[in-house]
Amino acid sequence: MNMIITPFSQLTPDNIFIAAESFTGHKFDGTLTPYNSYVNRVFGLTDESGKNFIIKFYRPGRWTAQSILDEHCFLQDCYESEIPVVTPLPAAGISESPVTAVAPTLAEIEGIYFSVFSRLSARTFDIYHDSDWIRTGSAVGRLHCAAEKHAAQNRLQCTPQQTTEPYIRMLLKNKLITPQLVPEFIQICDTALDYIEEGYESCFGLPDNSGIYHTPLFHRIHGDCHRGNILEQYHLSSPANSDMEENGIITFIDFDDMMTGPAIQDLWLLLPGYRKDSMHELNLLLEGYEEFAGKSIRSQIPLIEGLRFMRNIYFLAWTAIQYYDKGFADRNPGWGTKAFWETELEDMKTQLDVIISESRT
């Protein structure tokens, strides 16, 4: 993976409105609300009738059109299973250059893929009580039942071979790490990957020569299922077989990081701390999960701290890829300095110690 320089330089306000109006066939009132997005660019717009939309521009070079459509397929499968998600809208008819139709729910402008969604009226879902943990687990279980309907042929597997090792190589290749700290970085990563791969082998067997796992225990997952990507809707009709009407409807958003992998990935990010300190919450999540998924994934619990290490590398790499974006230094002061990498390595060593400790229990 190579560094991508100023990938959104063509994404001017004029082009945003051209894209939205051409895709939807609506006229917009001229207001543009930027939303926080880790990798992509996401904006809120309102048409002249007062209807609200979200337009999402996918970071160039990150996903192919086919991999984006894998995301859209997953969302459609969830919708058809009456799982609350926000599905991409079909184009009303692309009518204006430089917009090009790619698929019914995907278009392109100035080399940037984009989709349009209805804006959801909901609030952040806060997990306070045991019952909240159980129904969150239930919601993830229902999500995974829909996930098993189809495969995501063009998405990564959540494995050390596909979603960790390439990012480590990218960081090293682009010489982003302070040179005198590189040997320590390599040593920590190599040791952690040995433990993580051993854990994967214990759960799923060995991968093939390309690093691909062939196991029925892998299926589509959200991939980034933290609390910020779970909302709660009220005053809407609850989906069939839902126990959430009284409390509000748990709704999943932002499937951009969807992949294929172990189910536990969509649960551990919700925990308040390390696995050993969060067993009460994890057991409640699994109680709800097993009720709807109809299966146990408790054999995957030992993977959690390794998955946390993998996510740390993933976050570092995708932050690095934005290094040359406009405003990056303002948003990430001190990123890439020696002090920055010293802190990161200390965190990585701490996480490695947790992995080693858990492997001995």
The proportion of residues in beta strands is 5-15%
- The backbone outline, from C-alpha atoms, is globular
Number of helices: 11
C-alpha Rg (nearest Å): 21 Å
* Number of DSSP E strands: 11
List the helices and strands and how they pair.
Layout: H1 13-24, E1 28-35, E2 41-47, E3 52-57, H2 65-80, E4 99-103, E5 106-109, E6 112-118, E7 123-124, H3 130-147, H4 160-163, H5 165-173, H6 182-204, E8 219-221, E9 230-233, E10 249-252, E11 259-261, H7 265-268, H8 279-293, H9 304-321, H10 328-331, H11 338-359
Antiparallel strand pairs: 1-2, 2-3, 3-6, 4-5, 5-6, 7-9, 8-11, 9-10
Properties at a glance:
15% strand; globular; 11 helices; alpha+beta; 361 residues
Descriptive account of the structure:
The protein is an alpha+beta fold. The chain is built from eleven helices and eleven strands. About 3% of the residues have low confidence. 40% of the residues lie in helices and 15% in strands. The strands form three sheets. It has a six-stranded antiparallel beta sheet with strand order 1-2-3-6-5-4, sandwiched between helices. The protein has a three-stranded antiparallel beta sheet with strand order 7-9-10, with no helix packed on it. The longest helix has 23 residues.
